[in-house]
Q: What sequence folds into this?
């Protein structure tokens, strides 16, 4: 039996070989360890790029001559020169914008995490800040130029009008009248569309248009990692989510959204049902879903749920 | 630290620092460039550094140098573009399958957040134990396990898609 303490990081422990045979057998009921082993073994055969320390040393030793000092001025390569120019330009811009900012009417609203902060913009669009983070926009130019900077998580309810743009940490989001949210997770942004359509631009790979019920995950390098099915409302706006005649795979994705967890189930489960997910009660929600469908479930830890027949 | 000690440290650590930056950036030339810069920084502070702590200090310098300037560049492991096969005679369909499999794995690694990617590759390619990685990066073993777990979950998820 896998102990409560070991439920975390079990795959990591399996790979290191610190699980008992019994624990491995139990882990096999949750994961396809054979195929995972094949991938891991394949990657283990990758080699690092060639590197010759002696040769590199001869280059480095030319640059130094006494302790505590780097002597020779290194030549600025094209890339470094470009970076230097970029830094100089950024500093110039920052200094410039400092003086400009003092005379403009920027509004900054901070979220504090204890309760949601709802802010009404000059055009009656609403921004809900869910956690710590902030929004910033120019009150004076708002009517003609609806651009808002966002750091953190927010839900937007945008009134019809000119283009509305959110400059999030990764990617720009342009919308017309719509409801959508931006969630920042470790090293990634998740943008979800609840109503209307949302255009996410300034990405490495492509521009993407989200329809209601769609979400996109963007990483720190502004690449699209995944496109997901999302809820019709942001979880924090209500206490429960109802669903009608929905297949279990989609319900799994809804559970992942609401409880920020991973749901593991085989694609072969294809049952459908109607019901409700209670946002602050994972085990009751799972019971309400799985019992009528005659499915079993395990909450491996609060971050992983397994559903099986 | 005198010049001969410094050389000793360079010969001993520079390859692993070079690999570390490669795991962070996916860029061979940048790795060699930043490895040199890392050791120059160490040399500049040679009088202040204790020999015992030099290992994890080098990782910290390398990481800071990389994060300062290059973090937003896209990670592409060109060196791993195609599998280096030992057996040449294979069925063409099998080879194609292997190539796809290889590419999907490489892309999954490229898509991992930096901390997970680095820990995972240090374990797989440098064959370091979790404890050794924790010591080098000055983080707890629990953190190493957590990052490994997440990387393995991402690989497992890939198979659900295939």
A:
């Amino acid at each position: 039996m896998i102990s409560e303490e070991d439920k975390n990081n079990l795959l990591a422990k399996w790979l290191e070989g610190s699980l008992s045979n019994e624990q491995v057998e139990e882990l096999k009921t949750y994961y396809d360890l054979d195929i995972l082993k094949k991938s891991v073994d394949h990657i283990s055969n990758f080699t690092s790029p060639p590197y010759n320390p002696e040769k590199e040393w001869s280059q480095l030793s030319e640059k130094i001559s006494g302790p505590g000092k780097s002597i020779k001025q290194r030549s600025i390569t094209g890339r470094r020169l470009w970076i230097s120019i970029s830094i100089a330009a950024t500093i110039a811009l920052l200094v410039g914008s400092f003086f400009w900012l003092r005379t403009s009417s920027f509004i900054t609203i901070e979220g504090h995490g204890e309760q949601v902060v709802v802010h009404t913009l000059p055009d009656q669009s609403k921004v809900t800040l869910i956690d710590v983070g902030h929004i910033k926009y120019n009150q004076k130019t708002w009517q003609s130029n609806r651009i808002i900077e966002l750091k953190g998580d927010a839900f937007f309810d945008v009134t019809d009008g000119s283009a509305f743009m959110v400059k999030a940490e990764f990617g720009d989001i342009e919308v017309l009248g719509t409801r959508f949210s931006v969630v920042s997770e470790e090293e990634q942004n998740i943008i979800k569309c609840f109503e209307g359509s949302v255009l996410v631009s300034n990405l490495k790979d492509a521009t993407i248009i989200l329809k209601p019920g769609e979400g996109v995950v963007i990483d720190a390098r502004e690449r699209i990692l995944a496109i997901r099915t999302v809820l019709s409302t942001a979880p924090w706006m209500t206490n429960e989510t109802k669903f009608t005649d929905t297949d279990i795979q989609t319900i799994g994705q809804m559970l992942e959204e609401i409880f920020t967890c991973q749901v593991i189930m085989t694609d072969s489960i294809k049952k459908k049902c109607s019901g409700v997910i209670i946002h602050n009660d994972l085990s009751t929600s799972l019971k309400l879903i799985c019992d009528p469908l005659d499915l079993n479930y395990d909450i491996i830890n609060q971050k992983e749920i397994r559903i099986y027949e | 630290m005198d010049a001969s000690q410094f050389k000793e440290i360079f010969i001993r650590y520079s390859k692993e620092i070079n690999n570390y930056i490669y795991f962070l950036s996916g860029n061979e030339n940048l790795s060699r460039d930043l490895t040199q810069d890392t050791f120059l920084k160490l040399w500049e502070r040679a009088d202040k550094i204790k020999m015992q702590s030099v290992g994890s200090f080098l990782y910290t310098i390398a990481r800071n140098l990389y994060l300062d300037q290059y973090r937003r560049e896209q990670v592409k492991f060109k060196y791993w573009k195609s599998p280096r096969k030992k057996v040449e005679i294979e069925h063409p369909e099998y080879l194609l399958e292997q190539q796809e499999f290889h590419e999907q794995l490489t892309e999954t690694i490229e898509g991992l957040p930096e901390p997970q990617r680095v820990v995972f590759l240090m374990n797989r390619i440098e064959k370091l134990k979790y404890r050794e990685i924790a010591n080098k990066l000055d983080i707890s073993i629990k953190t190493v396990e957590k990052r490994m777990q997440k990387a393995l979950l991402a690989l497992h998820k890939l198979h659900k898609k295939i």
